[in-house]
Amino acid sequence: MTSPVAENCVVVVDLVVEGDALVRFMPLLRANAAASLAQEPGCLRFDVCVDPAERTKILLYEIYVDDAAFAAHLASAHYRAFDEASQAMIAHKAVHRLTLIAG
């Protein structure tokens, strides 16, 4: 009998930042990513990717142990502070939740 394979929660976020806000937005985003990795045991990966041709287009690739770990991320003080501080800087945001079944 084989044991079940753990299926991690993957979150992919497509962002477009208002051009004039990018210089303020990126330090906030980097701090949120670093805090997520350092303070959340359930956060396994938090990549920040920027389109080199259009730097206001950003993709976040995050992996959490499970859905509960992602919920803990959304409830964390550092995420809530980031969300509040950056909300007005974001022109477009699309969040995709996936399940990692192999990797």
Structure description:
- It is built from three helices and four strands.
- It has helices spanning 22-39, 67-75, 77-86; strands at 8-17, 43-50, 57-64, 90-100.
- The protein is 36% helix and 36% strand.
- The model has no long low-confidence stretch (mean pLDDT 94).
- It has a four-stranded antiparallel beta sheet.
- The protein starts with 7 loop residues before the first strand and ends with a strand.
- The protein is of the alpha+beta class and 103 residues long.
Number of domain units: 1
Strand fraction: 35-45%
Query: Which class of secondary structure composition applies to the elements?
Result: alpha+beta
Instruction: Just name the CATH architecture.
Output: 2-Layer Sandwich
Q: Order of strands across the biggest sheet?
A: 2-3-1-4
Low-confidence runs: none
The H/E string reads EHEEHHE
Report the biggest beta sheet as strand number plus sense, adding barrel if it closes. 4 strands, antiparallel
Q: What is the CA-based Rg, rounded?
A: 15 Å
Instruction: Could you tell me the CATH topology label.
Output: Alpha-Beta Plaits
Count helical runs: 3
Task: Provide the helix percentage.
Answer: 25-40%
Using the coordinates above, name the CATH class. Answer: Alpha Beta
